[in-house]
Structure prediction request, 83 residues.
Amino acid sequence: MIDKTVIDDIAKRVSANVPTGLKYLQEDLEKNLRTALEAGLSRLDLVTRDEFDLQQAVLQRTREKLDKLEKVVAELESNSATD
Prediction:
């Protein structure tokens, strides 16, 4: 999932922009925002960058194998047509 430090950083940035009159709410706002972000992000179907990169590599190898197999099938079809 997403690194907790990223969520903390977002919560701190948002709470830092609270108007001066509401600064006493800053800590509470930061906690609530962090909780809301975690809850919202946990509902999303996200993968880590490592998982994404791994699946991309698997897909690339699969495409290469498919290309080779398509060439073999085409050769077999052309040999069968000339027989």
